[in-house]
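Hi R.,

Here's the chain you asked about this morning:
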Amino acid sequence: MDKNFSKIIPYALYYKKNVILNIGFNILYALFSTLLMISIMPTLDVLFKQTSRVTQKPVYEGIGNLKQYIQELFNYYVTTISDQYGVQNTLLLVIGIVVLTAFLKNIFNYLASRHISILRNGVLRDIRKSLFDKIIQLPISHYSDKRKGDVMTRMLGDVGEVQNSFFQILELVVREPLTIIFSLASMFLISAKLTLFVLLFIPISGLIISKIGKSLKAKSTKVQQESGLFISTLDETLSGLKVVKSFNAESVFKKRFNESLERLLYLSNKISDKNNLASPMSEFLGILTIATLLWYGGHLVLVEKSLSSTAFITYIALAYTILTPAKAISKASYQVKSGLAAADRVFGLIETENDIVDQPNAITLNTFSSAISLENVTFGYEADPVIKNLSLKIPKGKTVALVGQSGSGKSTIANLLTRFYDIQQGHIKIDGFDVKEVTMHSLRQQIGLVTQDSILFNDTIKNNILLGKEDATEEEIINALKTANAYEFVKDLPEGINTVIGDSGNKLSGGQKQRLSIARAVLKNPPIMVLDEATSALDTESERLVQQALEKMMENRTSVVIAHRLSTVQKADTIVVMQKGQIVEQGTHEELLAKNGMYSKLVSMQSFE
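And here is the predicted structure, written out as tokens:
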């Protein structure tokens, strides 16, 4: 058994009642499928008057005499009913048995399908839930070199493929094999010699079919990878449509997209060819078996006369009954191979180790009362360090601004304070507690973050703001909007705070989006604020409004301001000038200007990052 099958089992066990009922109904379906075929033989016997008259009820003499006993018992009842009610009514009764058997077979088929659907859909939901839990749980560092499209393909395509393929296993191990077994047992009862002859063909058919499907798993993996690239290209094109159009780059993106589509088409056609070959190949092999049966069975009926014509017709019907489950097994085995490739990717993500987790005995940080301190911190996203042996203390209630050229490590400090990344050397402490020793939830509860990119969601203004405090009242939301200088435009919107702002807030201007981001942070009301270039993308008027909002928000709070423009840092208690991951100067605005060093140069160039 493939290792991925065992990973599905815990999900399926939650629905064990449905599994048991599905297996039970499948057993009954397989039994009545065979009985339906068998019930044709007495109908033919009555129709063609081939039943022997038996006036005395036969006695069961053991398994070795089972076939003769069943035949004589049937003939006894046919004789009795014919004598009492006539042959026409006897035929009606036998046909009634056929109809009842068909009815029960289809009822059990429906019930089995109903329970497998509950199982499939439930497990699909649960796997997607586990996958999304992992996507949310994994650190931001995990996605720095991953395509969004690849993650989306695993969630949408791969999980669906797992659902479609793996739950055919229940049909593979219960319904179809049992249908074959019951049919073969009945065929043995009718003619052991003919059945042994048939069984010679089964291994040959199996060998041919397995040869066809050998490379399917590898090709399925390539299709899923290409689907990830395809979705990523689409996502990037939609996200950057203004850039694509303004640079007349439509042809570049069309070419990239079409090339991905062509590769996907080629691989999909290859897989479809193999999948499509499964059914006709197995049917053709089945017809060959039937043709051979007709030749050898005809010999037993016409030459040896060891088999009655009605028994032979029933035998052929049973043999053909085996073809349907055999085809289903063949087709399912192909889909399972595709499912294995998809499951590798799904469980590969679910089982990805999260290297930024709470320690077993992590403490809860309920308040912030003293200072934030960075002690000899060294950190690099890859091999080369971005921050080198940096030490800095930020007392409670003070505003510290980080300035410097692009790439100097300012935004990295924001990522480290919020523990989006873990440092390689040194310590980051809040009130003397190392951030690695406190729970991430309580750490981030103490910090409000406003980034350069105003990240808003396609929802109402109210629901976007409520991310800061889920149980906030409408009055608290409006107060937060007023603090952020946002209520002046929100109140004029058609539906006020219940206005839907579109994908990424695209119905609003840059300044409006940024003020809503600030309002969200205000509502959260954290003691520490981290402002990562919060005004760098704004025009002068928007910057003025946002800057006023920021100043209101920073009152009586500890603030770390990663600055791009001079206006943001002039009033800071301490300005820290960074270069290549190290602090080269620090002091107030006036003190640093007096030094006539790096900060003074940055001011003169108006090049704050």
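One quick note: Residues 250-304 form the longest helix (55 residues).

Cheers,
M.
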